Amino acid sequence: MTMALREAAPAPSRTWATKLFGRDASGYLFLTPWLVGIFGLTIGPALVSLYLSFTRFDLITDPQFVGLANYKRIFFSDAKFLAAMKVTFTYVLLAVPLKLMFALTVAMILNKGLRGLTVYRALFYLPSLLGGSVAIAVLWRKVFSGDGLFNDILAIFGIQGVSWIGNPDYALYTLVALSIWQFGSPMIIFLAGLRQIPVDLYEAASLDGASKRRQFWKITLPLLTPIIFFNAIIQTIEAFKAFTPAFIISEGTGGPVNATLFYTLYLFQEAFSYFRMGYASALAWILLIIIACFTAISFISARYWVHYEE
Amino acid sequence: MKNDEAVSLPGHRGWGLLGSTSAHVVLGLVSLIMVYPLLWMVGSSLKPDNEIFNSASIFPSDPNSSAYVRGWFGLKVSFGRFFANSAVIAVLAVIGNLMSCSLAAYAFARLNFKGRNFWFALMLGTLMLPYHVTLIPQYVLFLNLGWVDTILPLVVPKFLAADAFFIFLLVQFFRGIPRELDEAAIMDGCGPWRIYWKIMLPLATPALATAAVFSFIWTWDDFFAPLIYLNDMSSYTFQIGLRTFVDSGGQSDFSGLMAMSVVGVIPIFILFLFFQRLLIDGIATTGMKR
After folding, report:
1. What does the pLDDT look like over A65-75, one tens digit per residue?
2. Are the C-beta atoms of residues A34 and B104 closer than 8 Å to each other?
3. B4 at the A interface (CB within 8 A)?
4. Chosen from A149, A179, A244 to mutate, greatest number of chain B CBs within 10 A
5. Cβ–Cβ below 8 Å for A141 and B257
């Protein structure tokens, strides 16, 4: 390859751009598409949306500045916001720990030198890969409907089920189940992490007579904390942003009785069903702040429980 | 990865015969729970409608594919159109992501310029940003450009490296390519463009392939953006078509709905079959969300 390059390129190290703008030029030339994007599609819109959050804006007439009115209404007199917060936090606090515990357990079983690892790993990963699509949300809706698969299986054991997605007491838990069903990708990350733990640590520990349980608490878990931390952050942010399954299962309503009104679904309704763009912008900024606070708290707490090797 | 197949680890970590049998039983059960809903989806799409209810079986007594035909033409516009729309958008998204993200990644990984660390930190910051914060002004922008009901709002951002995750992935990979190669090329008189095009891109094929497969799948699956930007049925993506089908005829034509759901996941399933190793390694090394 170098031969070909040598023949074809006499001395173009100083291109026209470098001549014109100096040595920084090519860096910025390569960055140009991204720079246009970051200003035009990210920073610019984010600032505009911050401004819009202080306005009333319906897309047709110009935004009207209303000060803190949107935020006041959100925090003090919006029952739907409270419902959405409750649903979202319940979902995050149930789905993320359960999914991670499940992922870790399966990863640990798989890590112990079992035959067929690649087959199991692929099977467990498949739902995680497919899970984001509408088709799977549609499937889930059918599995947990009154006459769906889940009740058919319960019937085999003589249990009479209800319509799980139609019942406000249970609807959210079907979505938690859907999230746990997609434990594959954190499992793969755990598996990669478990591989990094040096085997001689376990050998030394068992020579010293440490039980398996003790080895888990004293070796596996501490050494895995960076991976647990990473998975927890990624999964929590994703859980806060969950949208598609709730939208499909409730046909966009967040029902029954707001039981599946995810935060993002509420935001979507405000923006694109009622065209309250200012109000929806305020909701978006509150979501950003919630996620930022969560991330900050996680990083602060990490000092006390995440074990980094020097 | 070398140690992928079950390696027999030293005594205490391995399994006795009894232990390994019970582990296989547990894993087999978990596999069954994981895969059963998917098999049920396929089975249901092949059953006549009256057989589906009250049947947990995945095997149709009399398999027939009529539901696929019914579902395919179940809406005013056929699912063939939705499928084609989705494919076009996903392919363009792959091209856009590969071009724009590899350019930016090369700059971050290899070029020296003022402000590089600042821009890199900014790029990492956008990884965490929920898209809801930019959603409404972007919508207003695309509305004013007359792009609503076209594929442009779904495709153009990809050409502007809006999926910063792939920049990150490629930066990591580019950094692993030995610097001697660039240095030799510079000695031979190559400028940054030639190094990017002739050295970095060919050597980064595995990372580019990972980025391509993931951007195809994520774009194919994307629901939120098409839901907002595509209102005219002939411009629907497959996901939006499926959602419309649920809300209209799908309630009564259950097997048709399952059939179209199957069709909707087939492209992802095929990518999974062919690029399984690439996907799993991609997740293991970069920690992707799914």
Report:
1. 999 999 999 99
2. yes
3. yes
4. A149
5. no
Helices (H) and strands (E) in chain A, counts: 17, 2
With 0.95 as the threshold, say if the pTM is over it: no
- Report whether A287 contacts A236 (CB < 8 A): no
ipTM of the complex: 0.88
Q: Does B121 touch chain A (CB under 8 A)?
A: no
Residue B259 at interface with chain A, using a CB cutoff of 8 Å: no
Count the Cβ atoms, other than its own, within 10 Å of residue B180. 8
- State how far residue A124 is from chain B, nearest Cα, in angstroms: 7
CATH number of A70-305: 1.10.3720.10
- Please indicate whether, in this complex, the C-beta atoms of B132 and A287 are within 8 angstroms of each other: yes
Please indicate whether, in this complex, the C-beta atoms of A287 and B10 are within 8 angstroms of each other: no
Question: pLDDT (tens digit, 9 = 90+) per residue, A150-203?
Answer: 988 898 888 888 889 989 999 999 999 999 999 999 999 999 999 888 889 988
Which residues of chain A does CATH 1.10.3720.10 include? 70-305
Residue B286, chain A, CB below 8 Å: the answer is no
Contacts of A256 (CB under 8 A, 6+ apart): A166, A167, A168, A171, A250
Query: How far apart, in whole angstroms, are the C-alpha atoms of residue A234 and residue B258?
Result: 31
Sign of CA dihedral B213, B229, A248, B55: negative
Segment A232-247, tens digit of pLDDT: 999 999 999 999 999 9
CA end-to-end distance (rounded Å), chain B? 20
User: Chain B interface, mutation test: which of A19, A48, A129, most B Cβ atoms within 10 Å?
Assistant: A129
Cis peptide before A256 (omega within 30 of 0): yes
Taking alpha carbons only, the member of A86, A91, A53 closest to residue A72 is A53
Domains belonging to chain B, first-starting first, are 11-64 (no CATH), 74-286 (1.10.3720.10)
A111, A193 Cβ separation under 8 angstroms: no
| Mean pLDDT by groups of 10 residues along chain A of 310 residues | 42 53 80 96 96 95 95 95 97 97 94 86 93 92 88 88 90 96 94 90 90 89 92 93 93 90 96 96 97 93 82
